[in-house]
Request: fold
Amino acid sequence: MAVITHLVLDVLKPHQPNALEFTNAIANRFPRLRVNLVVQEVDEKTESTFLTIGGDDINYDDIVQLISEMGASVHSIDEVEVVGDEVITTVG
Reply:
């Protein structure tokens, strides 16, 4: 089964938690992941961000759930990298 090793998500988040608190929450919940957040645009109540996550085996559903718990939402998956861990051979 293939595993996700790199994700770039377009995330709309409220101003609080701030970028540092937001990324720390993800890194603390999933300690083997690398987390980077770039703020693209700020308006009165929200921030448009790109969230980059790297690791050996990223659980997309768990990441999205935590993002939602912090009051943010994933708008799109802008980049993804997966690595297969099995070689499938066919006999013809």
In short: Residues 19-29 form the longest helix (11 residues). Helices lie at 19-29, 60-69. DSSP finds two helices and four strands in the chain. The beta strands are 3-14, 34-42, 46-58, 73-83.
